[in-house]
């Protein structure tokens, strides 16, 4: 993971033009209104590179950081950000559901149930709403149990809700990577076609049979692919647990004495359940969409 940071903090401290914030004649201002010399986390940074190009002192560079380092201890929990991260978790799960063999029948049945026969958009919408709402309800219930366990010495429910939401990020991200790893394996032959003929000169539209043939001939064997996908999601689960442990030790976030060991069981149960659902989804036969 890369992040934008000052080469020399003293140069940023002495800067009066704030080109990283204001931009220049050629470069747009920072789209999220950040000053490089004044932030230590990438919660709102889009990694667009505008600040790197606009800095007249060339004092902004890309730094390498370990995955999850900010989510573990640096990033400040915020109420709206927590909802956003949980929404990302729901969207990634929903993406997998829509490729299940039973999805088309379920979406059609859901549309029929509300009197919208022949219009699967209603079933799709209901499925998306459910995928967004259900993880939030389960997460909120787990935080509620955690809040009761913490007792009067604990922080407020809202603070704890925001603090532990960062554990959703590695679960969502690694599942999304694992899902698209299969696409990469099946569609990698297109990369060579693109490099050999980037403008598509004299290209002929492929038939559905040719596309299907490509999808059925991945570059990696199925066993290798499944192992890589499982490894990614296990890594995401491990990272989520580390985030819970780090956040549980921060008394500013969870209250006096922190939350350790068995007290974290509600949140551990949440991340374990999400990881299990994602592993189950990945183990199912998926229907490719053409």
What gross morphology would you assign?
Answer: globular
Task: Give the total of beta strands.
Answer: 2
Largest sheet entry:
2 strands, antiparallel
What fraction strand? under 5%
Number of domains: 2
Topology as a string of helices (H) and strands (E): EHHHEHHHHHHHHHHH
Distance between the termini: 32 Å
SS-based class: mainly alpha
Spatial order of the strands forming the largest sheet:
1-2
> How much helix, percentage-wise, in residues?
55-70%
Mean pLDDT, rounded to whole units?
81
Uncertain segments: none
Oligomer state equals single chain
Number of helices: 14
Backbone CA Rg:
23 Å
How is this structure best described in words?
With 290 residues, the chain is mainly α. The protein has 2 domains: 1-8 and 16-47, no CATH class; 79-283, no CATH class. It is 61% helix and 3% strand. It contains 14 helices and 2 strands. The chain has helices at residues 9-14, 19-22, 50-54, 69-74, 79-97, 103-113, 121-150, 157-164, 168-187, 189-196, 208-215, 222-249, 251-254, 265-283, and strands at 2-6, 60-64. Strands 1-2 form a two-stranded antiparallel ribbon. The longest helix has 30 residues, at 121-150.
Key descriptive features of the protein:
two-stranded antiparallel sheet; mainly alpha; 290 residues
